[in-house]
Amino acid sequence: MDFATPVTLQNEFVRLEPLGPEHADDLAAATAGLEDRWYTSVPDAEGVPAEIARRRGLHAQGWMNPFAIRDLRTGRAVGMTTYCAIDQPNRVVEIGYTWLSPEVHGTAVNPAAKRLLLGHAFEECDAIRVQFCTHFHNRQSRAAIERLGAKLDGILRNHRIMADGALRDTVVYSILPHEWPAVRNGLDARLAKRR
9-192: which CATH architecture? Predict the structure, then answer.
């Protein structure tokens, strides 16, 4: 299987569904409380339909495979995530463009979603590298990536120009196949405490 193939992934905490217009209302509500995150690109409620369309367009180009994250406790879509920067010939993918409603921060939702995405990448798509990139100032995201067990590869300085014209330093992490069993065990242990 390749990284761009639409797929639904589920465990006892979340279901990752191919992102579509049917998720717009839930996701618009999920953006509440994220307005002050200057270091990330979360759409406002009115911008959610356009962001869904943008991500679906990138999927059609083979660059991204976008998902809605559905919290199975409530049945609501509470965020988005993607496989992106897809490099199928080299079996490399990035997990990124992820945002979650503040109401699920600190719950099982993020580690459960990462468990599904990483498991699919390594076990079904035969990835040789899964990477994560985040803004240098996004301490919350950096801490979450480090809790996964991803290794710091480095910082790409002046890597991107943000929408407001500011220059972004990007922190790059990765997980390799021989590291996946330990990362998987760590995620499974964290999720077992949430049952």
Answer: 3-Layer(aba) Sandwich (3.40)
